[in-house]
């Protein structure tokens, strides 16, 4: 699935901090915790809480955030539709990685089992 260059550029320039607070609100509204959110983000990116806080304080862009991430080997198992895009068909790597994170947060907010969210076989 092709996204527009404008869409990809907008995502690349978006700061992790601006979206992080929305992730927290979404998860907590549905009865989840910030700790669970951090577990999911850590699984996908390899970042610990200290590193996440650093990205928030620095107002790091998603481009910078994912350039420094070590994606989990099972990240490719994250499939489905998010924001009208089929994740596995997104051709731009950064946009796909951001949508991976969005999908994991959605699953957490829907109170799916952590084993399912973390693609544990």
Which strand-content bin applies to the residues?
under 5%
**Shape call:** globular
Question: What is the C-alpha radius of gyration, as a whole number of Å?
Answer: 13 Å
CATH-derived topology: Helicase, Ruva Protein, domain 3
CATH architecture label? Orthogonal Bundle
Q: How many structurally independent domains?
A: 1
* Share in helix: 55-70%
- Low-confidence stretches are none
Element-level helix/strand string? HHHHHEEHH
- Could you give the order of strands across the largest sheet? 1-2
Notes on the structure:
With 121 residues, the protein is mostly helical. The chain has a single domain (5-117), classed as uncharacterized protein sp1917 domain (Helicase, Ruva Protein, domain 3, Orthogonal Bundle), CATH 1.10.8. Helix content is 60%, strand content 3%. The chain contains seven helices and two strands; from the N terminus they run αααααββαα. A hairpin with a 2-residue loop joins strand 1 (81-82) and strand 2. Helix 2 (16-29) packs across helix 4. The mean pLDDT is 95.
List the helices and strands and how they pair.
Layout: H1 5-13, H2 16-29, H3 34-45, H4 49-58, H5 62-67, E1 81-82, E2 85-86, H6 93-109, H7 114-117
Antiparallel strand pairs: 1-2
Structure, briefly:
By secondary structure, the protein is mainly α. Helices cover 60% and strands 3% of the residues.
Question: What are the defining features of this structure?
Answer:
single chain; 121 residues; mainly alpha; Helicase, Ruva Protein, domain 3; two-stranded antiparallel sheet; 7 helices; 3% strand; globular
